[in-house]
Specification:
With about 160 residues, the protein is α/β, with parallel strands linked by helices. It is about 35% helix and about 20% strand.
């Protein structure tokens, strides 16, 4: 006979908690030496795509060749063009495009607040909501997302 578990013994995670747990797991695939970030795109409680920060497919990762930004002592959030890697949000959006999945009306869950480059991609992809765990202070990204009407929620 199956044992019944009381609600006090088992607390089912909310959808937001569930998706944030998944982005933390996705971030473990990161090959960045400075910050591990994970992102997932969700629509109608279905995961459309995942992404983590790392070098483009087929290229050597920073864990193999080192970090140019670290060698040049570049602060976090600056000179993104000097990084071998793509951001987690970028990789998730690109995976969606590669597989023909529309993101119009989708939500993005990420371990970190998006930078301005990712914010512009989020806006143009039609993503309506961004849920994130940690702060990543990028004032321009915050302003652009707000102006575009993208809801940003810290969990």
């Amino acid at each position: 006979m199956a044992k019944t578990i009381s609600k006090q013994q088992y607390e089912r995670p909310s959808w937001d908690e569930y998706f944030m747990d998944i982005v933390r797991l996705v971030s473990r695939r990161s090959t960045c030496l400075r910050r591990s970030v994970g992102a997932i795109l969700v629509k109608d409680k279905r995961i459309l795509a995942t992404g983590y920060n790392g070098a483009p497919s087929g290229l050597r990762h920073c864990v193999e060749v080192g970090c140019l930004r670290e060698k040049m002592n570049i602060s976090s959030g600056e000179r993104h063009e000097l990084c071998r890697g793509l951001h987690a949000e970028q990789n998730a959006i690109i995976q969606s495009a590669l597989h023909g999945v529309s993101l119009k009306g989708a939500a993005l869950y990420s371990t970190n607040h998006p930078c301005v480059i990712c914010a512009k991609m989020i806006i143009n992809a039609g993503i309506e909501r961004v849920y994130y765990g940690d702060g990543y202070r990028d004032k321009m990204a915050e302003e652009m997302l707000e102006e575009a009407g993208v809801k940003v929620i810290r969990l």
